[in-house]
Automatic annotation (TrEMBL):
Catalytic activity reported: (S)-2,3,4,5-tetrahydrodipicolinate + NAD(+) + H2O = (2S,4S)-4-hydroxy-2,3,4,5-tetrahydrodipicolinate + NADH + H(+); (S)-2,3,4,5-tetrahydrodipicolinate + NADP(+) + H2O = (2S,4S)-4-hydroxy-2,3,4,5-tetrahydrodipicolinate + NADPH + H(+)
Species name: Dorea hominis
SUPFAM superfamilies named in the record: Glyceraldehyde-3-phosphate dehydrogenase-like, C-terminal domain (SSF55347), NAD(P)-binding Rossmann-fold domains (SSF51735)
Function of the protein: Catalyzes the conversion of 4-hydroxy-tetrahydrodipicolinate (HTPA) to tetrahydrodipicolinate.
Annotated keywords: Amino-acid biosynthesis, Cytoplasm, Diaminopimelate biosynthesis, Lysine biosynthesis, NAD, NADP, Oxidoreductase
Quaternary data: Homotetramer.
GO molecular function per UniProt: 4-hydroxy-tetrahydrodipicolinate reductase
Record's protein name: 4-hydroxy-tetrahydrodipicolinate reductase
């Protein structure tokens, strides 16, 4: 499989490049950086700190290299991701997108893309986070109506969107298990006189220092509570998952895929 990685100097793009370079089933053919960066025109291995040159260029024009690839792995910004999506559709290339912070209308564009390309969107590519989502679905279907549900998510000071895409996905999983839409029952933070409304899902976002991704879901009952937590020690688990997602798209027909399909959790 021939792969293009966007934002190879970024936190995720760098690790995805390193993981992809180590796999026998993948060949990196280009890296895509934002226009104006000083590393444009240099070797992808150097930019992503792989430890060796890969003899693969980093360019700032995806359209100039897109026909060399089978799949694009995009963990960039929401603005860049929409440009990548448009080009993937135009050139009929598979796309794995892990960028977050999109509006409902922007997410609809990813879903619509599935009519013409293999499209896999994953707010979180960690295997254990997605196993956790399956556990959350089971708990909510079983006893969710009896419990108060709260989500605490923690990230570093640089994360732009709040709440995180992962916590939104968790909330959507539990809301659907209750037969509801997250947009109808989510409550974001509290201040002043703010009694809890039954049947809601509360969100709390913490941003500080270089805290790695951490998500806890609290199921509060009378006299007891259950906490399900995932801690990410580093970002390699997400990079490995992203490459697994790209590999899954090999020879797939156009369609909207998720990491649940990759992990056989559907």
């Amino acid at each position: 499989m021939k792969v293009i990685v966007t934002a190879p100097r970024g936190k995720m793009g760098k690790l995805i490049t390193q993981v992809a370079a180590s796999r026998d089933d993948m060949e990196l053919v280009a890296g895509i950086g934002p226009k104006g960066r000083d590393y444009i025109g240099t070797d992808l291995g150097t930019v992503a700190m792989v430890g060796k040159e890969l003899h693969v260029p980093v360019v700032d024009d995806l359209e100039s290299v897109i026909d060399k690839c089978d799949v694009i792995i995009d963990f960039s910004t929401k603005e860049m991701a929409m440009e990548v999506l448009d080009l993937a559709i135009r050139h009929k290339k598979g796309l794995v997108c892990g960028s977050t912070g999109f509006s409902d209308e922007e997410m609809k564009r990813f879903e619509d893309a599935a009519s013409s390309i293999p499209m896999l969107y994953a707010a979180n590519t960690s295997k254990l986070v997605n196993v956790m989502n399956k556990v959350l679905e089971f708990i909510t279907k079983t006893v969710g109506e009896e419990l108060d549900i709260e989500i605490l998510e923690m990230h570093d000071q640089w994360k732009k969107d709040a709440p995180s895409g992962t916590s939104k996905e968790m909330g959507e999983t539990m809301a659907h298990a209750l037969g509801k839409e997250l947009s109808d029952i989510a409550v974001y933070g509290r201040e002043g006189v703010s009694p809890r409304e039954p049947g809601t899902i509360g969100y709390h976002s913490l941003r500080a220092g270089n805290i790695p991704s951490s998500h806890t879901v609290f199921f509060g009952g009378m006299g007891e509570r259950l906490e399900i937590t995932h801690h990410c020690y580093n970002w390699e688990c997400f990079a490995r998952g992203a490459c697994d997602c790209a590999a899954y798209l090999a020879n797939k027909d156009p369609g909207y895929y998720t990491i649940k399909d990759v992990l056989h959790l559907s």
